[in-house]
Design brief:
With about 400 residues, the protein is α/β, with parallel strands linked by helices. About 35% of the residues lie in helices and about 25% in strands.
Length: about 400
C-alpha cells in the first residue's frame, strides 16, 4: 500500500487548443515528479467554424492517443477556454463567502444574461482590496459559462471514453503551472505577467503571488500572424503556416554549448536572415497592436492595485517562440520578455513531447491541469538563479 501511494498516477490532463490536442499524465516515483505519458495531435487544415468535424476528429484522435501512449486509467482534468467564458471585473463590498457567492450569482444573472444560472456555470476570483472613492471594496473577477457549454463538454469527454474529475477555467490552469516554482516567502508578493499567445487569441494574466488579479483575452493570435505573412510573401495559408512553424521550431531550441549541427555557409545565413526579416516586417503591425493592448492591461492593474511593479513578461503558448513578439512587445512595454518553461524540473525523459530540450512553452495549460492536486518537489531558492519564472 505504501509503495502504491508513493507511485500514484495523477488524472490525465486534456488540453483542446485551437490547433492541437495535448494529453499529459504525471506520476511521482519516490521524490521525483515525472511524466508517465504524454501525446499531442494536430488538427488538419479545416475551417475553424466547422465545429462538428473538429469534434469528430478530436474524439477519434483522443481515443487513439489513450490507446497507444501508456496512459493509466480514464480520470481526466480538462478546461474551458476563455472563448467559452464570460468574464467581468466587478467591485463588491466586504461580506462573508456565502453572502458573496449569493450576491455574485445575482450579478452573473444580470451581467451575463443567464436568468437560470446553475452553480457549475459560475465561478469567481477575489483579486483583493481596492479603493473606490472613500470606500474599500473587493475586486472580483466574475466568470460565467453560457448555457449548454458544460453539458456539451461533458458529452465530448464521454465520447472520448474519459471520466471527468474537474473542469477548470483555462487561465486558472495556465497560471497553476507557473506557481509551482514559488518556494520562498518573498515569492508570495511577486508580480507575475503571463502572456499566452495561441492560434486565435492571446490571454493576459497578471497575478500577485498565487492570486490572479487580472484576466483579459485579446483577439490577436497566430492565425492572424500567418495570414499577414502569407500576404506579404505571396504564400498560401498552409505554406505560410509551415514556414512559420519551421522558424519557430528553430527558436524553441535552447542554445547548447555542444552541438553536432553543421554550420551554415555565409550565403545560407544571409538567406535565412533575409527571410526572418521579411517575416518580422510582415507581422510588425499586428504585434504592435497586441503590445498596445497588453500595455492597457498593465496600466489598468497599476491604477487599480497600487504598488504593483512589473519586472518581466513571460510568454507561453504555441506562439511564444515568435521572436518578433518578445522584441517588439519588450520594446513597447520597456520590459524584458522570456519564454516560459512549464515543465522545468519535471522528468520528461523517454517521452516525445516535441523538442524535449526546448522550453515546451506550448504545454503550459496542459501542465497546469496535470499539476492539479500534485505537490511539486521542493526547489532550492537559488536553483534557477536569474532564470526563475517569477515576473
Amino acid at each position: 500500500m505504501l509503495g502504491f501511494l508513493k507511485n500514484r498516477c495523477e488524472p490525465i490532463a486534456l488540453d483542446i487548443g485551437g490547433d492541437s490536442i495535448k494529453l499529459l499524465q504525471m506520476q511521482r516515483v519516490g521524490g521525483v515528479l515525472s511524466i508517465r505519458a504524454g501525446a499531442r495531435w494536430r488538427f488538419p487544415d479545416i475551417p475553424a467554424a466547422d465545429v462538428r468535424q473538429r469534434r469528430d476528429l478530436a474524439v477519434v484522435a483522443v481515443r487513439e492517443m489513450l490507446a497507444h501512449n501508456g496512459f493509466r486509467g480514464h480520470r481526466v482534468v480538462s478546461s474551458l477556454s476563455m472563448a467559452n467564458l464570460h468574464i467581468k471585473n466587478i467591485r463588491m463590498p466586504a461580506m462573508t463567502d456565502s453572502q458573496l457567492t449569493s450576491a455574485l450569482a445575482l450579478e452573473a444573472q444580470e451581467r451575463f444574461e443567464l436568468p437560470d444560472i446553475k452553480p457549475d456555470q459560475m465561478g469567481y476570483l477575489n483579486a483583493g482590496e481596492v479603493r473606490q472613492g472613500a470606500d474599500i471594496r473587493n475586486e472580483i473577477i466574475l466568470m460565467g459559462v453560457p448555457n449548454g457549454v458544460v453539458e456539451d463538454h461533458l458529452a465530448l469527454l464521454d465520447d472520448m471514453g474519459l471520466s471527468p474529475e474537474h473542469i477548470e477555467a483555462e487561465p486558472v490552469a495556465l497560471f497553476r503551472g507557473m506557481t509551482r516554482f514559488f518556494r520562498r516567502q518573498d515569492d508570495e508578493q511577486v508580480v507575475s505577467v503571463v502572456v499566452d499567445v495561441g492560434v486565435s487569441a492571446t490571454r493576459v494574466i497578471v497575478a500577485r503571488g498565487r492570486r490572479i488579479v487580472f484576466l483579459k483575452s485579446i483577439d490577436i493570435g497566430g492565425r492572424r500572424f500567418t495570414e499577414v505573412v502569407g500576404a506579404h510573401l505571396n504564400l498560401s495559408y498552409v505554406e505560410a503556416s509551415e514556414l512559420r512553424m519551421r522558424v519557430m521550431k528553430e527558436q524553441s531550441r535552447q542554445p547548447r554549448a555542444n552541438t553536432n549541427e553543421p554550420e551554415l555557409s555565409p550565403e545560407q545565413r544571409d538567406s535565412k536572415d533575409s527571410l526572418r526579416w521579411s517575416m518580422f516586417d510582415a507581422i510588425r503591425g499586428e504585434v504592435e497592436s497586441l503590445a498596445k493592448e497588453i500595455a492597457l492591461c498593465l496600466r489598468y492593474c497599476s491604477v487599480t492595485f497600487r504598488g504593483l511593479r512589473f519586472v518581466t513578461v513571460t510568454f507561453t503558448g504555441g506562439e511564444a517562440y515568435e521572436p518578433a513578439l518578445r522584441e517588439l512587445i519588450g520594446q513597447h512595454l520597456n520590459l524584458p520578455c522570456v519564454i516560459g518553461q512549464p515543465l522545468r524540473g519535471v522528468d520528461v525523459s523517454g517521452l516525445d513531447l516535441g523538442n524535449r530540450r526546448g522550453h515546451l512553452a506550448e504545454w503550459a495549460v496542459c501542465t497546469g491541469l496535470a499539476m492539479r492536486g500534485v505537490t511539486a518537489r521542493h526547489y532550492h531558492e537559488d536553483e534557477y538563479g536569474d532564470d526563475r519564472l517569477s515576473a
